[in-house]
């Protein structure tokens, strides 16, 4: 085996990468993602028509039973949890780009009166109609 500068630098780089991965696993463990505070906000579309405001919240992979919709003061609040269905002790996570854990999205409502319609959950999207009243 050669012990030149290239071999030494490669060994140092590999050691640094291993240290970085250990630190990453230590500080970003899966069980830390499950917290009482919201960990992420789902994206929304808000579209106004002549008689309603239609809010669509993108929640793929979230069970409809895990979603709560409430009106709080002058906001619509959509909250819930997306769970990671693996056992961290028996799995190695190579990449985790999809947000997991508690989510909450607060949407400021306009000052006029709105009557909420029946929410519809289809294809990973929750659609909430808010009908304008006179």
TrEMBL record:
InterPro entries: A-crystallin/Hsp20_dom, HSP20-like_chaperone, Small_HSP. Residues 35-134 form the SHSP domain. Belongs to the small heat shock protein (HSP20) family. This is HSP20 family molecular chaperone IbpA. The lineage of its organism: Bacteria, Pseudomonadati, Pseudomonadota, Gammaproteobacteria, Methylococcales.
